[in-house]
Amino acid sequence: MQVGIVDYGRGNLHSVENAFLAIGANAKLVSTPEELEGLTHLVLPGQGEFGDCAANLKERGLFEPVKNWIAADKPYLGICVGYQLLLESGEESPDAIGLGVLKGSCKRFPNVGLKIPHMGWNQVVPTDPSHPIWNELPENPFFYFVHSYYTDLQEQEDIAAHCDYALNFPTMAIRGKLVATQFHPEKSQHNGLQLLKNFLAL
Predict the structure, then answer these.
(1) Gene3D superfamilies given for it (predicted)?
(2) What are the residues whose beta carbons fall under 8 Å from the beta carbon of 83, sequence distance 6 or more?
(3) Would you place residue 11 in the very low, low, confident or very high pLDDT band (cuts 50, 70, 90)?
(4) For residues 54 and 43, what is the distance between their CA atoms, to the nearest angstrom?
(5) What CATH number should be reported for the domain holding residue 61?
(6) Would you name the residues annotated as active-site residues?
(7) Domain that holds residue 93
(8) Which site from 42, 104, 110, 192 is most exposed, i.e. has the minimal number of CB atoms within 10 Å?
(9) Count of domains forming the chain
(10) What gap in Å lies between CA 150 and CA 28, rounded to an integer?
């Protein structure tokens, strides 16, 4: 098993790498298409602006290879913007095009008097608690969030969990061996590490 963490100039790369190392996984940073060879799992972390992240993926020649990886139903984990980039577009960068793997767009939280970004611990409610991604996790577990935009997924079967903040939004997507989270497993202590273990075991 070899986990590749996509280094495209954005994202909390080393904390994601350290989280996988903490659970005993072989993990390394990859920044070229050639380095995807030999990997069993691919992780796309993300912090930053939707358009910049998409542009950086293209600049490093990784946009299409990542898309092809997912199309082949190889294990993929998207975190935060690495989740949002799976969608078709985002309000943050109207001219940018996402990977288009999932139907929908990323929208800014409505102004309802709550602080934006949504930052800190919040409870996640699975749509199918029997899915193995939730193995050995508590009912409706808490994870750590940092984001100002949420995913408006259009296909209900892709939605694996919801969370409440300003509105009820899809906080996790699963399709085959694709798993994507709006929260940060690498910052979510025991629950986050358990979820990473479950991802590797899918």
Answers:
(1) 3.40.50.880
(2) 46, 151, 172, 173, 180, 181, 182
(3) low
(4) 15
(5) 3.40.50.880
(6) 80, 184, 186
(7) 3-201
(8) 110
(9) 1
(10) 28
Give the whole-angstrom CA distance, residue 128 versus residue 51. 32
d(CA 202, CA 190): 19
- 98: which residues sit within 8 A by CB, 6+ positions away? 50, 54, 84, 85, 86, 87, 88, 89, 90, 106
134: tokens are 């939730």
Token representation of residue 178: 């694709």
pTM of the predicted structure, to 2 decimals: 0.96
Which among 93, 83, 50 is positioned nearest to 163, based on CA atoms? 83
Residue 3: CB atoms within 10 Å: 23
The 10 Å CB-count burial string (b at 16+, else e) for 19-36 is bbeeeebebeebbebebb
